[in-house]
Amino acid sequence: MTAPRRKSLTIATYSRIAIWLALLFIASGYALQSVQINLLTQSDVDSAFSEAVASQAAQALKTRLDDTQRLQLASSSHEATLDALLTGNRTWLSDLKHLLPGTEDIRLLTPTQSQNLQAEFSFAVQDLVNRTLRGDEMKLEAVNINGEQSFFWASPVPATGTPQGVLLVRYGQDWLNAFRSSVSGDLGQIQVMQKLTPQERTGIEVFRAGKSPVKSTSPVTLPINDYWFLTYTPSDHRPVVSLLDLSYPWLLSLLLTLSALFAILFIQKRALHKNRSHFQQFLQRFFKQEINSNPGFSLKLFNELADDVLLASEPLIDRLNSAETSAKTAALTVNHKARQRDDLPELDEGDEMGDEAENADNREPRNASRTESTTGSVREQSATYDGTPLDFPQNDDELPAHMFRAYDIRGIVEKELTDDTVRNIGKALGSEVKARGFERINLAWDGRLSSPSLAKLLQEGLLSAGCSVNRLGQLPTGALYYACFESDTPCGVMITGSHNPAEYNGFKAVIDQQPLSEEEIQALAQRIRESDYTHGYAGVREDDISQNYLSRIGNDVQVGRDMHIVIDAGNGVAGPLAAELFRELGAEVTELYCDVDGRFPNHHPDPGEPENLEDLKHSVLLHNADLGFAFDGDGDRILMIDNEGNTIWPDRMMMLLLEDILPRRPGSDVLFDVKSTRHLAPMINRLGGRPTMWKTGHSLMKRKLKETGAAIGGEFSGHFYIAERWYGFDDGLYVGARLLEILSNRQDSVADVCRALPEDISTPELTVAISETDKFTLIDALCSDEALTSEGRIFKTDGLRIEFSDGWGLVRASNTTPKLTLRFAGDSDETVARIQTIMKQALTRHAPEIQLPF
């Protein structure tokens, strides 16, 4: 019996379509002779008319702005204004209100008086006054306050020299009356938008007049200044040119006809080639007895041929199967199609003979073939898969729910990540990729001993779901992310255990350039539980992107002087590429544990633990290097050591990046996690950014980065997300290159540069072992403990962070391991000890059995 398939198209159908299209285009050619509108000329007239109207309206608004600016500067320059600022004389303010048309409110503010404007109005008004006091250029800004729009203009008092205060004027909607009178809404729609920074996606609408046209037209946008933009959309009633004859319409229709015919012939040829290739694969698998049904073809001819082959071969296959069954012995482990299965257990003679006939039609072989190289490594051959569901052995054990974490999938190899589980993860991920409308996924893995075998199993599952695979090989995670932006698919999966012990491994998945997290990862687990998988054709392709990846970083980064650096990769996957990258950037590189060894014989690849940095510190001092970089197991985290052997923790590394990035991106959002220093937010404000504290976790941070359009984000763990000149994903190699660029363009030593950054007395990230089921319950209990939370300012973004006037403390549940993570910082050792004592007392009340490291 043949499998159900979609309705096929015959070759005759394509021919009929071609004939009808030919007749259609020829008829269209004669019809075009009656068309009298010269579209090109009409377009030119429309464009000139729109430009003229838009220019007139823009000039009227610019004149209104210039007049207002001259009046306000004159008011700021008046000696009575300075006297009123110093004496508090309110009479002069009343006089000024009559001199400035459209005014709703006028205030004279000293620097001290100007600090509470955010509470009264908004952050935008506060920021406008602050910039005026710093001497920045005057700007009239539209601000929405409680659903009503006002215009604020702040000018320095006096207008020249050092500002002693600010003249803040609030204009109402009447201020635009003079502009409204010069705008005619009959000619179309005029809209004025305010965008203070180029990164703003929408901006604020300042003004709109006229009706939107019914027909689609091309709007004209002109800048009024560097932050106000006027857009004019013409109305449906605009000047029309006289009718002109179109030349050669018949030749045009003939050209279109021939083009369509050639296009159809090309499509038909491709369909024939594709079906022929699939038919050859069908014949090969059928005569190897790997398939016994028609897989379905897009052309009816090939479906009929396949059915004929199956029908003609049925008697022969029946005879062969009968002879094979009678010849089986107890030692025989092949199935009825003489296909070896290395993933099935051996059967005794009774089981084999009894189940053979029953299961004969249900078994399918695996698709991918393997060849062993001379070095013993496994290399997958390029192959295709015809979409028939693979009959892998099923595991009756319940799927471990704790493996599906907040931002990745992680478990113990063989104990939790069994062969069946990994294949099923591949099936679920491939099905999700297909459901999102994509056909391929990039696959890479780290240097752990289990990673190549997990890659093979995962690939089998992906192919079974009909998802093709780009095999990138052993690479850092950042290179896999890079491939999702620069290859032919925005999807990827990285097999890595990151900084976890050697017996762990896991998967970080990306679909449409965004990491899967929380609900999406749980949805993969649900697909596995329900066996909700897709099927289809799939193939494997070997890709090597490492040189393109290194070139992309090298072309972006410019090192200013010779630097000597030490790299400690902890025998993780980042070592070889990191050493090559920094040498290409012109640095002198001393390698420390840069050979990949999944046993991690020297130290664990986790730079967040101080004991793992000791060798790097000694090497920096021994070689008199300028700095050292430490990477974690998959290369997406980084930590820095200065030339004096001091650890520069990631929140202070973030400060170096902020000093470089924010001057080019003023007003940008900046993300940092709850484990970062309290000095970050004030620095971000001082540099003109907008600080946002967010949850720890690479996928959570990257999603928030995209949502806010932030220029940069960072975690205390060493994950950095740079969206300025880069893609916004965490990549330790790229971050190291950017830091090298920043430090090489300063003449001071790295230690001197870092000494200038604000710093608390602080602990590293501390961990406390606790069960997976108890860690979140304990955090909830601590958040409800009034004896603890009444002591300071509380943040519950991720765990519990308590801030005091002289320091802060944090406790949160790790999303990757069965642990609590804690951190403390303050003005002095005594402050840190006091905060630790407060936290210890609370932890002891709710979980007296846990062992604390302080």
Describe the structure.
The structure is a single chain. Mean pLDDT is 82; it is low at 1-6 and 328-396. The radius of gyration is 35 Å and the shape is globular. Strand 3 (148-157) and strand 4 form a beta hairpin. The chain has 25 helices and 33 strands. The termini are far apart. Helix 11 packs across helix 14 and helix 15 (546-556) crosses helix 16 (575-584). The longest helix has 39 residues, at 39-77. 40% of the residues lie in helices and 20% in strands. The protein is an alpha+beta fold and 854 residues long. The strands form seven sheets. Strands 11, 12, 13, 14, 15, 16, 17 and 18 form an eight-stranded mixed beta sheet that branches.
Distance between the termini: 72 Å
How much is the average pLDDT? 82
The residue fraction in helices comes out at 40-55%
- Rg calc: 35 Å
Reported for the largest beta sheet, the result is: 8 strands, mixed
- Count of DSSP helices? 25
- Give me the count of strands: 33
Structural class: alpha+beta
Portion of residues in beta strands equals 15-25%
Question: In one word, what is the shape?
Answer: globular
User: Low-confidence parts lasting 5 or more residues at pLDDT below 50?
Assistant: 1-6, 328-396
Short précis:
With 854 residues, this protein is of the alpha+beta class. Helix 12 links the parallel strand 13 and strand 14.
Write the layout of secondary structure elements.
Layout: H1 11-32, H2 39-77, H3 79-87, H4 91-99, E1 103-109, H5 117-120, H6 123-133, E2 140-145, E3 148-157, E4 165-171, H7 177-181, E5 188-194, E6 204-209, E7 220-223, E8 228-234, H8 249-287, H9 300-326, H10 349-359, E9 370-372, E10 378-380, E11 384-386, E12 409-412, H11 419-435, E13 440-445, H12 451-464, E14 468-474, H13 477-486, E15 492-495, E16 504-511, E17 514-515, H14 519-530, E18 537-542, H15 546-556, E19 564-568, H16 575-584, E20 588-592, H17 614-622, E21 627-631, E22 638-642, E23 647-648, H18 650-661, E24 669-673, H19 680-686, E25 690-694, H20 698-708, E26 712-714, E27 720-722, H21 732-744, H22 750-755, E28 761-762, E29 766-769, H23 772-783, H24 786-789, E30 793-795, E31 800-804, E32 807-813, E33 819-826, H25 829-846
Helix pairs in contact: 1-8, 11-12, 11-14, 15-16
